[in-house]
Specification:
The chain is mainly alpha-helical. Helix content is about 40%, strand content about 0%. It is flat, with a radius of gyration of 16 Å.
């Protein structure tokens, strides 16, 4: 999908601050094969989306933790 409803929070009169980042969740070999073939893999909102749960969750938790810790320093 080209957009997320989440971004609408920043457009209210309250000007709620928000942050959204993209996290890769596909097996690198599967991504390489799709790129080599010139095909696209199913996206997040597809019933055919097939993430690699363990590394995606681990990376997401590490990235979010680092982001929060950095924000708390300021």
């Amino acid at each position: 999908m080209a957009s997320e409803d989440f971004s609408q929070y920043g457009l209210t009169d309250l000007k709620v601050p928000y942050c959204m980042f993209w996290l890769g969740a596909t097996d690198p070999q599967r991504l390489k094969e799709a790129n080599d073939k010139g095909t696209r893999l199913p996206g997040l909102h597809s019933s055919e989306f097939y993430p690699e749960p363990e590394p995606a969750i681990r990376t997401g938790v590490e990235a979010m933790t680092a982001s929060v810790l950095d924000l708390l320093k300021k």
